[in-house]
């Protein structure tokens, strides 16, 4: 039996869910997605859990979809097909969710960050929407990311794939707080302590109020999933994934 890639613990009303797949930079493999979804469901269903913290081991928070699993898969078999359910589970959780980043987030990993209610990062953490650089579209994560970002920043960062630091992530609304690495635990405790003071039903109702949107998230995810899976399985997406895995420039990158 494969070792567990996501761990779960509860202490004084705080459920901590820890991504522990450092060998592939906590990529969103099928196993990791399955275990993360199961632990999130456990925490949401537990009346004693007042706050959920999403943590990680290793130097990287989450590098996005596991591209080794995406290579060669058709549009109906892409791992991204299961991702909307996971993001929606975090976004719609009646229990507040706090993300703690001691390291970088990329692509789908940024989607997890945006889905949470509170995100705290070490100052040396970095972020990037790298999808276009491998010929795919950041469609699914756009459902959670775009409500957070300033529009100009969203256009720039989605289209260029440029890496940006935690200070800018805070300025454009992606995260709540960027602190020195040695203060990261303290800052997470500050937020979880404040959240735990709220009435559970009041917090759940307030989250529902904040989520009001003229288009249902399910419909938005369905449309974006179709777009995303099409590009993951398409010729350009498969070439981009292959070039990433082979550590070479993609065929469309200009050469001297």
From TrEMBL:
- Extract the GO molecular function terms from the UniProt entry: catalytic activity
- Top-rank taxon, per record: Bacteria
The record's section on CDD domains has: crotonase-like
Q: Which family does it belong to?
A: Belongs to the enoyl-CoA hydratase/isomerase family.
What name does UniProt use for this protein?
A: Methylglutaconyl-CoA hydratase
Q: Which source organism?
A: Allokutzneria albata
The organism's lineage is:
Bacteria, Bacillati, Actinomycetota, Actinomycetes, Pseudonocardiales
């Amino acid at each position: 039996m494969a070792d567990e890639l996501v761990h779960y613990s509860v202490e004084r009303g705080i459920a901590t869910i820890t991504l522990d797949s450092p060998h592939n930079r906590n990529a969103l493999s099928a196993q990791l997605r399955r275990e993360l979804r199961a632990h999130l469901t456990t925490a949401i269903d537990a009346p004693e859990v007042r706050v959920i913290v999403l943590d990680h081991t290793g130097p990287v928070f989450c590098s996005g979809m596991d591209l080794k699993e995406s290579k060669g898969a058709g549009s109906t078999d892409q791992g991204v097909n299961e991702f909307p359910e996971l993001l929606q589970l975090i976004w719609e959780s009646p229990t507040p969710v706090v993300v703690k980043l001691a390291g970088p987030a990329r692509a789908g990993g940024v989607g997890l960050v945006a889905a949470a209610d509170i995100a705290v990062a070490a100052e040396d953490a970095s972020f990037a929407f790298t999808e276009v650089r491998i010929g795919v579209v950041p469609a699914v994560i756009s459902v959670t990311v775009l409500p957070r970002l300033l529009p100009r920043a969203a256009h720039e960062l989605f289209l260029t794939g440029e890496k940006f630091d935690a200070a800018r992530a805070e300025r454009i609304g992606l995260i709540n707080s960027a602190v020195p690495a040695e203060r990261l635990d303290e800052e997470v405790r500050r937020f979880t302590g404040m959240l735990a003071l709220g009435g559970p039903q009041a917090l759940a109702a307030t989250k529902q109020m904040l989520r009001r949107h003229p288009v249902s998230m399910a419909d938005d995810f369905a449309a974006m999933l179709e777009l995303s899976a099409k590009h993951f399985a398409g010729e350009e997406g498969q070439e981009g994934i292959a070039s990433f895995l082979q550590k070479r420039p993609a065929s469309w990158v200009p050469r001297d």
